[in-house]
Structure formats: C-alpha cells, structure tokens
Amino acid sequence: MTTTNSAFDDSVSFDHRHIDLDTRDDVYVIGDVHGCLDSLEALLDTLDVGANDLAVFVGDLVRKGPESKAVLDRVRRSSQLVSVRGNNEQKLLEGEASLPDLDVVDYQYLESLPAAISWDGGLVVHGGIDPSRSLSAHSNEDVLTLRSPDGDGYDGPFWFESYEGPPRVFFGHTVLADPIEREWAVGLDTGCVYGGKLTAYDVRRGEAISVVGTSHVERSSEKIVTTDSE
After folding, report:
1. What is the CA 60 to chain-centroid distance, rounded?
2. How far apart are CA 200 and CA 6, in angstroms?
3. Per-position pLDDT tens, the chain of length 230
4. CA distances from 184 to 10, 71, 88, 163 (A)
5. What residue stretches are annotated with the Calcineurin-like phosphoesterase domain (predicted)?
6. Does 9 reside within a domain?
7. Cα distance between residue 88 and residue 71, in whole Å
8. DSSP conformation class of 152
C-alpha cells in the first residue's frame, strides 16, 4: 500500500494511514466480513479486483462467522486488499475475546491494522465520528466504536444522520438493512453474517455492489437500522 505524508496526519491523534489513490485504477470499500469467507470470495469475484485496484475493508474481518483465520489470510496475502481495525479485532488484541485458530502471525497482523485509512477527501473507519467534535478530538476508541454521539448502542440518533463533512466517511459497525449512501457518509455493514449482504462501494463510480451473505448468527431486527439514503 502506498502511503504519503499529509497535513491530515498531523491533525489527528488516532492511528491513521494516508494513501495516494492517484496510482490506482478502481477503488472499493468493503463492509464487515465477520469470517464469512464464501461471501468475501463471491464479492471479490464480482468486483474482479485487478493488479492496480485497491479494496479497503472497514474492519471486523473476524469473529461470529466460521472462517476468521481464512479471511485474515486472504486479506493479508494480497497487496490489493487492506483494512482498518474493527472493534472485533480490538477485542481479540485486548483479550476480551479469543479465536483458537489464530496464531502469532495473525495477531501481529491485527496489531498492524490502523484505526483509519484516508485519502484526499475520504476517510475509512470502523465505527464513526462525532459531528460535534473535530477529527483531532477523536481517539482510536472513538473511530472504532462510535455509533451515536451519546453512546455506541442502537438507540440513536446516529452520527451519520447529522454529519456534514468533509471528509466523506466510509464506515461499518452499524448493521444496516441496505447500504447508506449520503453526500458525506457511506455505510457498508449490511449484515453479511446475519444472512444479509456483503457490500462494497465503488469509489470511482459511486455505486454499491452486494452479494448475498450466509446466516451464521441470529440477530434481533431491533439492531438492524433501516434508513433512507440521500
């Protein structure tokens, strides 16, 4: 992954990587995979990610689904695939959760994942940002877990409902019935592991592409957000 220095680097305190998209052809952002390898392979086949393309994951590659290690291997071994850290990766690193199949190399990879990846005009995080605060006032935990300025639950209001940018923020973490595409926020966790979809967003063309997920975990409909895109 090409990294560059940016004024953005000096203005935030969360762990962050800035990348240059000028050298890339197609660029995609992909929602929460949660160990669903079959859905991931189906989506990558649909996208037909080429040697000069880039796919950026919003985190939560692991847990809940059956093949977390295989998903990590798939992403880690490709120079066209990169990811930010999600709250489920963080839980593994902090010992709040465990996956017996993971080895030292897997944990080293998880540790290497940044809390955010940005390019000029775009920011990928797992959780979100608080519209009432500057980016510089956000911590790693904020961008990993935030759903609402008043908490991380599903009671709302959600941060993306009032966020007005810039930058345009691509995020996961909040399970959506359908992807959200707003001027300043693009939500991509469409509940793959719950029998929803695995969704990618084509940054160049401005469109979402989804494949059907597999239901590995039951989820209350009260924790699936239905909202209109703008």
Report:
1. 7
2. 26
3. 434 334 454 578 788 899 999 989 999 999 999 999 999 999 999 999 999 999 999 999 999 999 999 999 999 999 999 999 999 999 999 999 999 999 999 999 999 999 999 999 999 999 999 999 999 899 999 999 999 988 667 888 999 999 998 999 999 999 999 999 999 999 999 999 999 999 999 999 999 999 998 777 777 665 778 765 44
4. 22, 29, 25, 7
5. 27-177
6. no
7. 14
8. S
Amino acid at 103: D
How far is Cα 185 from Cα 47, in angstroms, rounded to an integer? 22
Domain assignment present for residue 134? The answer is yes
Structure tokens at 185: 């926020």
Closest by CA to 88, choosing from 68, 118, 66, 108, is 68
The DSSP letter of residue 136 is: G
Hey, what are 120's tokens? Answer: 């000029």
What's the length of the chain? 230
pTM of this prediction exceeds 0.90: yes
Indicate the number of domains in the chain: 1
CB 55 within 8 A of CB 83: no
- Residue 13 belongs to some domain of the structure: no
Q: Residue 192 maps to which CATH number?
A: 3.60.21.10
Residue that is written with structure tokens 């953005």 in the block: 8
